[in-house]
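Hey, I'm writing a tutorial for new members on how sequence and structure tokens pair up, and I'd like a real worked example in the thread rather than a made-up one. If someone can provide the structure for the chain below, I'll link this post from the tutorial.
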Amino acid sequence: MTKRPLSLMLLGTVPAVAQTDPPPLKVGNSVPDVKLRTEENQEVRLRKLVSEKPTVLIFYRGGWCPYCNRHLQALVGIEKDLLAAGAQLLAISPDQPSKLKETPDREKLGYRLLSDSDATAAQAFGIAFKVDDATVEKYKTYKIDLDAASGKSHHLLPHPAVFVAGTNGVIRFAHVNPDYKVRLDPDKILAAAQAASQGGRHEP
């Protein structure tokens, strides 16, 4: 499986991320009109949220993942600049709504966390993969229970990913990396969001 980060831009082609079907969405595709749930267990539609302002979508594995939590905390550093650019940040994971509230240092995150507990969004974005049974059991030895986290038994997780979309729902920047230990630098995310707010696209 490739460990190379995939920055999917309008120019040029890149291979699809391994273990996904369909392949990841890329620049020029539209944000799927999927349903998510808030921490209060209220249903929201992603396209409706994106239509309100340029949006940075962060897909992460869950509040049980230390690499995810470090990235979520790092994103706090660009939140003020994102707001100044007229953009919003939404972080999406398979965690069920009640688990979102248990995210480490949740009170320090000003942005919204959304639940994709049935993995509909991850699959629609082409970034979902199934965790094999052996790994599911191994996780339990580390006190990580995927079923308890999502409230489901599908064992689907998203590859860490960043998508930036304009209010028309068109994706202007996409980055997917199957290596869960590597995350996109917040400054690059900010630059992509600023470009989207100005009606352009960002190329690293």
